[in-house]
Design brief:
Order of helices and strands: EEHEEEEEH
Strand order of the largest sheet: 2-4-5-6-3
Distance between the termini: 39 Å
Bound molecules: coenzyme A
Number of strands: 7
Shape: elongated
Largest sheet: 5 strands, antiparallel
Radius of gyration: 16 Å
CATH architecture: Roll
Strand content: 25-35%
Number of domains: 1
Helix content: 25-40%
Length: 156
């Protein structure tokens, strides 16, 4: 069995997915069904968390899910997930979804979300995850914000 690394950079787990919105993904208004986008967000974030902890984690909490602009049938959707912080057994992942209209090369930020995953063992209890290596100013800033959100969640 390979042992877990002590710490990993956010770049090692960063995850990018691309989808195209098809008629079966739409609501009656012809825009993407929110639940479909949420499913893609959950998968993208779960892959990033799994790449970090090396096991299949479970979604514990979804926070700050904000649909900023509509996504339409035919749009190409890019979903990007990156860890903002790794705690003891849990990890926070930020997901940003951009839409690209056919014929346009300008991606528009459409949805943002924060998700917390827990690395669970066979008994359903949390297992330790590698620390997150904070290498850049952006890494440190995102991690400080994640730390503040974790404290706020614990107080709620
Ligand atoms: C997530 C789950 C394992 C947490 O169980 P728990 O008994 O609360 O576990 P613990 O108290 O030991 O906490 C484990 C970690 O989860 C975190 N956690 C638990 N609930 C949380 C919440 N609502 N928001 C953020 N983090 C949470 C804790 O902060 C802790 O993190 P840390 O070790 O990094 O400090 C449990 O609630 C569960 O299995 N939920 C169902 C998950 C699921 O089915 N998801 C959808 C399908 S994948």
């Amino acid at each position: 069995m390979t042992s877990s690394p002590e710490a990993l950079s956010p770049r090692e787990s960063e995850t990018q997915m691309t989808e195209q919105v098809l008629p079966q993904h739409a609501n009656v208004l012809g825009t993407a069904f929110g639940g479909t986008i949420m499913g893609w967000i959950d998968i993208c974030a779960a892959i990033a968390a799994q790449r970090h902890c090396g096991r299949v984690p479970v979604t514990a909490f979804v926070d700050n899910l904000h649909f900023k602009v509509p996504i339409s049938v035919g749009d190409v959707v890019s979903i990007h997930g990156r860890l903002t912080q790794a705690f003891r057994t849990s990890m926070e992942v930020c997901v940003r979804v951009t839409r690209e209209r056919p014929g346009s090369r300008d991606p528009v930020l459409s949805v943002e979300a924060l998700l917390v995953f827990v690395n669970v063992g066979e008994n359903g209890k949390g297992l330790p995850v590698p620390k997150l290596l904070l290498e850049t100013d952006e890494d440190r800033s995102l991690a400080a914000e994640a730390d503040a959100r974790r404290s706020a969640r614990k107080r709620a």
